[in-house]
Amino acid sequence: MTRNKLNNILGLPGIIFLSVFFFTPSLFIFRYIFGSRTRTGKTSFDKIYFDSFSQLLDFNVLPIINKSFVTAFFVTLICFIVGYPFAYYIKKLSTTMKYFSLFLISIPFLTNFLSRTYSWKILVSKNGLITKYVSMFYDVSSLLFTDFSVVLGMVYVYLPFMILPIFTSLENIEDSLLESAKDLYANPFKAFYYVTFKLSLPGVIAGIVLTFIPSLGAYIIPQILGGSKSMYLGNFTVLQFIQASNWPLGSLVSLIILLFMVFAINLLFKFEGQRNL
Amino acid sequence: MNRTLFLKLNYVFVLVFIYLPIFLMIGLSFNESKYFNQWTGFTLQWYQELLQNQNILNALYNSIFVAVVSTLLSILFGFGIALYLFRVKNRFTTFVEKFIYVPIVIPDVTMAAMMLVFFVFISNFLEIKLGIATTIISHTAFNISFVTVLIGSKLTRKLKVLEEVASDLYANHFQVIKQVTLPFVMPALLASIILSFVLSFDEVVISMFVTGPGSTTLPVYVFSMIKKGVTPAVNSVSSLMLIFSLILVTGVLLLSRKDNLK
After folding, report:
1. Which residue from A10, A12, A116 is facing B22, i.e. has the nearest CB?
2. What ipTM was predicted for this assembly?
3. Is residue A4 part of a domain?
4. Under an 8 A CB cutoff, do A11 and B80 touch?
5. What whole-number distance in Å separates Cα of residue A238 and Cα of residue A245?
6. Same domain assignment for residues B112 and B22
7. Can you give the residue range of the structural domain that contains B12?
8. In this complex, do B6 and A13 lie within 8 Å of one another by their Cβ atoms?
9. What is the three-class DSSP state of A277?
């Protein structure tokens, strides 16, 4: 057997697997969007239906999209406000402390998502630590099942997604650039803005996309911290599949989440491309 | 306020913010009292109860089985694709190189939906039921990409040169893989084994969609417990899950750090 043939065979099983069990399923979503929910909850395919599109308005999906966007916006904003100074601070630490801090931030990046969300539930439920503190100022008995706790929970889980890319881009800035700014009589604020901040923009944008996208389609966090009444795009989709058996509508909303994501990633690449020019 | 002081406070605040809830939860799992707002004494009672809960043990068994099998499959498929992309360059591989990122970035809700509609649709024609097999297939479908990307990042020019030297010295194809390629990518291979195991073991949404009665995985079961409320049982089982993935992830981070220092 020639070497070339062998190389082709190496990739073949995986590519076939992904074509059958990833690529093909993604096409099925499109078929289901144009199906119709029958009275038994099964989906009928005897012709092309547009039920899911009209239900988008009937079921008030637009306010849900709006709410998800507003939530994702605040989550991203808070993550940025807290995350940027954090990344900026650890860049200046000694090598050992820097890597140790990075290590501490990367661990929650990958550990059990469900447990971390749950640990936050303890803090905001009745008599929880945060609830006790907030109730000194406001009249609340429990913060659980409020939009406030959903936003905080998302910040908690997605903060490392903001910090890590910002740190990477800050780390790549050469100190000599800041020194030249100083030599050219830039005050510290100007030097920071024109050198550090502008050069860290790619990391900032990556961080924004990486926090915004998962917050937009989140399901677990709203379900645990927001309760079953507060609707976001993620749990609306799951509801259509698991309880309402309205698969065409569920498929359409899950596709909408995907489209938002594709749009955001394209935006990211566009900025990346500009930087390389 | 002093700028450095602000930065320092923010730093401490973030670390406390991230680790306080985790330590609080682990601490509470040893609390004798059923109520989480009072500490009455140290106990292992809740962990002992976990060991007697047949539902949790079954779910744990399912999770481990799914994670092991899907890890094996994803390593086999993902490593193959990584080598293929490394050695062959044409229009098709350029497409695959881009497409391989889709399972990584796709929102879990979207992937869950498409796997469910796919399996249910083909069950009209084939003898297939939602259960362990469909869960393994779905986990493999997203893990392959992580393995390919992680190992692919280690397949560099340096390796190409080493492989060429080996071939020039009359090593055959299998000798090259065994004696040059494998040792070179070993740290990345180990890291991707652990990572795909953790990703599969922690996965909730996709598993929830494609699993059937009797084949519930641990996170799906724990998720249904969490929705009911804060209980000592949930404290202990989530602490265990967290500590377990914490240990594995620390392993991955140490491996990749060691690899970068080389």
Report:
1. A116
2. 0.89
3. no
4. yes
5. 10
6. no
7. 1-43
8. no
9. coil
